[in-house]
Amino acid sequence: MTIPSVTLNNGVDMPLLGLGVYAPQHNSEVQQAVEWALEAGCRLIDTASAYGNEREVADALRAASLPRSEVFITTKVWDDDQGYDATLRAFDRSLEKLQLDVLDLYLIHWPSSPHRLDTWRALEKLYADGRVRAIGVSNYYQPHLDELIGQATVVPAVNQVEFSPYCYLPDVLAYCRSKTIQLQGYAPLVRGEKRNDPPLLALAEKYNKSTYQLLVRWSVQHGVVTIPKSVKRDRIRENLDVLDFTISDEDMALMNTFYDNTRVATDPREIP
From which domain of life does this come (predicted)? Predict the structure, then answer.
């Protein structure tokens, strides 16, 4: 399976589909999950210091024996580590745990910290020093991005937000596109909360796919980098197996109307 890539605003290619490893109840299973994902053709792994599993990701990469250039690794700086010097130290710790010389993408995990602009300056330094190939943010909506871009030297390459038909905010997607920021979506499967939603079930039956596959495909067709999470081998393979069908324009428009603000994480609009 060859997964297509998107080209970020600095020319770096990033796979369109990957594996998220936020798994607080299953960290002991993360290494195996990453190995299964890589075996299935996945080449994007998204972790974070707050997930506590960067070492497990490193162990899986070593076990897979793939060329380093073939795998795109993302991690994030947590709120408690924000600030210029603290972020540089946090990056060193993450790189040591991941056993990497260069990271592919480093993100500010949330815009919650009063030190977020100093944190971004640290990311710009890491980028200028060649220690990370691209930098970006997570859980930023337009007010946070306006603040950042007003001060930044480097426009974020990626903004990672919760993204599914049930918390689809087209203005966020349009804004990021207007600023050449690649949107990346997490929790595309809404942690299973909508797997029995009747309109979604009807469409899944129409396309002879699972509701999970339909949700992943919807994100991919919006051009959003998508990182469904699972620690089960069959589900990992199923979530990646969405490249052999296309949702019609009519059905994409229908799924766009499923919005009911169902979320698994904090709404960034609540962050000052």
Answer: Bacteria
Q: Virtual CA dihedral for 183, 16, 11, 256, nearest 10 degrees?
A: -30
Q: Catalytic site residue 51?
A: yes
pLDDT of amino acid 272:
84
CB atoms within 10 A of CB 155: 15
224 domain-assigned: yes
Please say if the pLDDT value at position 27 is more than 80: no
Residue 109 assigned ligand-binding role: yes
Radius of gyration for the alpha carbons in the chain, expressed in angstroms and rounded: 18
Q: Could you tell me if residue 268 is inside a domain?
A: no
Beta carbons of 57 and 47 less than 8 angstroms apart: yes
- CATH number of 121's domain: 3.20.20.100
Pair of tokens at residue 17: 């589909």
**What is the distance of C-alpha 176 from the center of its chain?**
15
> What pLDDT sits at residue 28?
80
Q: Which among 51, 106, 140, 186 is annotated as catalytic?
A: 51
